[in-house]
Amino acid sequence: MDAIAKPFGWLMLQFYNWTGNYGVAVILFALVVKLIMLPFQLKSKKSMMRMSRMTPRLKELEKKFGNDQARYQQEMNKLYKEEGVNPMSGCVWSLIPFPILIALYRAIRFPITTMMGVSAELMAEGGAIYEKLLELGWSAEALTARQRAYEQIFQSQFITEHFADFQGLSDKLVALKYNFLGMNLAETPNVAFWSWDSVTWGLIGLFLIPFISAGLSYLSMKITNAQNPQTEATNQSNKTMMLTMPLVSLWICFSMPGVMGIYWISQSVFSIVQETILNRVFNRQLDIEDADRIEREKAREAELEAKRQETERLKAEGATTANKNTSKKRQQAAAAQKEAERKAAEARAARAKRRAARGEVDDIPASQVGNRRYARGRAYVPDRYTNPDEAEEKTLAAAEESEKYAAEHPEEFDISDIEPIEADAADESEIPALTPADGEAEENDDSEPDAFDESDDADEADACPADEEAEPDFDDEDDESDDEDDEN
User: Fold this and answer.
1) CA-based angle 252:253:258, to the nearest 5?
2) Any residues with CB less than 8 A from the CB of 110 and at least 6 apart, and which?
3) Which of 9, 44, 8 is nearest to 282 (CA)?
4) Which residues contact 372 (CB under 8 A, 6 or more apart)?
5) Rounded to the nearest 10 degrees, what angle do helices 69-83 and 55-65 cross at?
6) Span 55-80, pLDDT tens digits
């Protein structure tokens, strides 16, 4: 702690040498600490104020996803990220003043060795300064039990009263006076100040310091919490802190020298001023940011509404075709499938060219359409309906031939580089991409079936056979009987 306390003590001493007043030096020290912390607290303050304004939106998320805590946490973190808010940003900076307070307490408690930087050997038994104190009549026995905890403060006061006698023992000794507004800040406030032999303004002032400190601490926390996000849990926590911290301040100021109370009061006053100014400045900035955000949301909603109305108009005119394959994954898969089809077509063309060069005739199955060998199915039989007796045998033979062909020409059926498309609702666009029907077929149009399509040609079952004969004539016997009836 000395590594932190000594720089603080040195700064306190510089302020004292500059002002000649111990209380003013403490106030200036508190101001410098506040100014050093200000750049770090600015970001934290703005983040906390943003969170405060996000409270209604967080409540909406809680209503929407309250039963699903994992989803609620996910959406809340997403909202924090979009708004640039860090919920933990204010926690670290709110804890930093406590180490500073502890370091300052050590510098105040040991003013000779920590603030002035006098060697501890000189203050120990046998040291020159310690022996001089005993020689001039100073005794620790004259101190009360509470005062003995601050023995070096009273040694410093004694040295100041007999400063000429300590000249030459150390060039670092300073005549330190603890008077401030008629109070001795080296003294500890007394709860029962009226029990002393003489009641002076100094004693009354010391008695009031803890209460002033507690009141300002409460006011500072109230102003700060007014701009922080309030939920049911945080609201209860803030109420507890607003009661606890002033009580802690009250206890500390009654337990330590009055100078600590002056520091606490100064910190509270500077915090109140800081919070008041920052609230006004950041509220203006956040009002502008909120107005811009609302305008962007309105513009986005207007754009979506215009698209929806245009879609409805095109639907009413029958001039739209839905294309749900708008996700990046589906587009990549469709592109990969097209590439595989292109490679298969090139492989078939190359094979046909080689066979033609050898004078061979490429067998074209009945299932082929264009350059797709099995567009109508791998087990396609043209006369399956007109010749049902042989349909089963021909179907099995066609399936066997297609399997054999696929095994001999795997390059035409290689789809290893096509990624499967998982059924994921998140991949679908909230609004399907609609394009006017201009005669162009979609990517998944039936006019271009996949090269590896294994359909059973159910469409063929609905079509009339091409070679089916005309409807037969009526029975001749019926015609003759009709003629006899007419004659009768």
Assistant:
1) 140
2) 5, 152
3) 44
4) 448, 449, 451, 453
5) 150
6) 777 777 778 777 777 888 888 888 77
